[in-house]
């Protein structure tokens, strides 16, 4: 018995040489294509970048946190008991079932706590923080509201917030808190102060500092980079560059009904992908579904020579001299 390979002319083959040429060729192609088509390496947005380019934007972020008006304040699990961002399909809501796993009070976590860590460097912060902490919630809200009311006419000069003149005590300690907050952000240490705990252990969990800019700041800079998700979904890269192409199906769902109009879009997309992936993985074990390739018959076209030989009564594995 002879085998199909016997019908082909055999020639010497230098596998090492071919492997070397292929590796070098592919390597050069990757470097050239990466240089021409790769996406820009835009650094992650930081509080230092925001305070240097648009300080009033960081001031507004701080005031929203202090007043409980940030999106994070009413987000819901896993950060707090709010309901604004809780996703559910009927009674199915894994987000709500998980409960509060990372408790965050925006005013304390994102503003007061990092400033408390700096009072050892700036002793004047002791009195400023004491004034804020000992005031009632109503008084704190009044101070923040007064500052927010005049913020459109404010300016940041030399790292200091300058507000229009007002009645004595109208702003309370908010201006002083803000100036120290701006200085901390400008030093590049704000994120570390938010995430850092006591001790010399390195900071690994950056969740809290990432949430600092998740409102207007992230949206403002995402718009500049064309990353609002209107064209390519949730994996779009900076500028006009697409994201990971292999996730096209996942992101496609965000662009079509009912996903793009649902308040539980993330949950719907995840469930859809899990169900479809499960069906694909279990296809060999599902009666009817596993028979689709046989019904379609594409395999007959691929192996047409094999079936032609069978119909003629020959052996497709035997080569005739």
Architecture blueprint of SSEs:
Elements: H1 15-37, H2 47-53, H3 55-67, H4 94-98, H5 106-116, H6 124-134, H7 137-150, E1 155-157, E2 160-162, H8 174-186, H9 190-195, H10 207-212, H11 216-224, H12 248-252, H13 265-281, H14 292-296, H15 298-302, H16 304-311
Antiparallel strand pairs: 1-2
Helix pairs in contact: 2-3, 3-5, 3-7, 6-8
- From the helix content, strand content and strand pairing, which structural class follows? mainly alpha
SSE order:
HHHHHHHEEHHHHHHHHH
Oligomer: single chain
Count of strand segments: 2
Main beta-sheet annotation: 2 strands, antiparallel
What topology, given as strand order, has the largest sheet?
1-2
The end-to-end distance, rounded to whole angstroms, is 11 Å
State mean pLDDT (0 to 100 scale). Answer: 88
Number of domains: 2
Task: Supply the key terms.
2% strand, 49% helix, 16 helices, mainly alpha
Question: What is this structure, in a nutshell?
Answer:
The protein is an all-alpha fold and 321 residues long. Helix content is 49%, strand content 2%. A hairpin with a 2-residue loop joins strand 1 (155-157) and strand 2 (160-162).
Please give a structural write-up.
This protein has 321 residues and is mainly alpha-helical. The protein has two domains: 47-219, no CATH class; 225-281, no CATH class. It is 49% helix and 2% strand. The chain is built from 16 helices and two strands. It has a two-stranded antiparallel ribbon. A hairpin with a 2-residue loop joins strand 1 and strand 2 (160-162). Helix 2 (47-53) packs across helix 3, helix 3 (55-67) runs antiparallel to helix 7 (137-150) and helix 6 (124-134) crosses helix 8 (174-186). The longest helix is centred in the first third of the chain and has 23 residues, at 15-37. The mean pLDDT is 88.
């Amino acid at each position: 018995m002879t085998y199909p390979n016997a019908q082909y002319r055999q020639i010497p083959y230098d596998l090492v040489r071919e492997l070397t040429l292929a590796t070098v060729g592919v390597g050069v192609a990757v470097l050239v294509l990466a240089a021409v088509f790769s996406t820009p390496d835009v650094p992650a947005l930081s509080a230092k970048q925001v305070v240097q380019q648009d300080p009033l934007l960081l001031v507004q972020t701080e005031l929203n946190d202090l007043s409980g008006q940030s999106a994070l304040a009413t987000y819901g699990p896993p950060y707090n008991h709010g309901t604004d961002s809780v996703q559910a399909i009927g009674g199915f809501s894994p987000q709500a079932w998980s409960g509060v796993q990372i408790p965050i009070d925006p005013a304390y976590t994102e503003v007061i706590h990092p400033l408390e860590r700096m009072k050892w460097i700036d002793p004047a912060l002791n009195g400023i923080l004491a004034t804020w902490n000992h005031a009632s919630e109503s008084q704190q809200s009044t101070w923040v509201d007064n500052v927010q009311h005049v913020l459109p006419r404010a300016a940041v000069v030399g790292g200091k917030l300058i507000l229009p003149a007002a009645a004595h005590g109208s702003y309370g300690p908010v201006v002083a808190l803000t100036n120290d907050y701006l200085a901390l952000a400008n030093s590049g240490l704000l994120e570390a102060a938010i995430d850092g705990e006591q001790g010399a252990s390195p900071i690994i969990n950056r969740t809290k500092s990432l949430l600092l800019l998740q409102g207007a700041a992230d949206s403002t800079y995402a718009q500049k980079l064309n990353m609002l998700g209107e064209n390519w979904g949730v994996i779009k890269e900076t500028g006009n560059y697409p994201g990971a192409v292999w996730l096209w199906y996942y992101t496609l769902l965000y662009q079509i009904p009912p996903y793009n109009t649902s308040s539980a879009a993330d949950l719907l997309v995840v469930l859809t992908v899990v169900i479809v992936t499960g069906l694909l993985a279990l296809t060999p074990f599902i009666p009817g579904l596993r028979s689709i390739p046989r019904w379609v018959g594409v395999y007959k076209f691929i192996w047409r020579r094999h079936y032609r030989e069978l119909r003629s009564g020959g052996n497709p594995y035997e080569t005739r001299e």
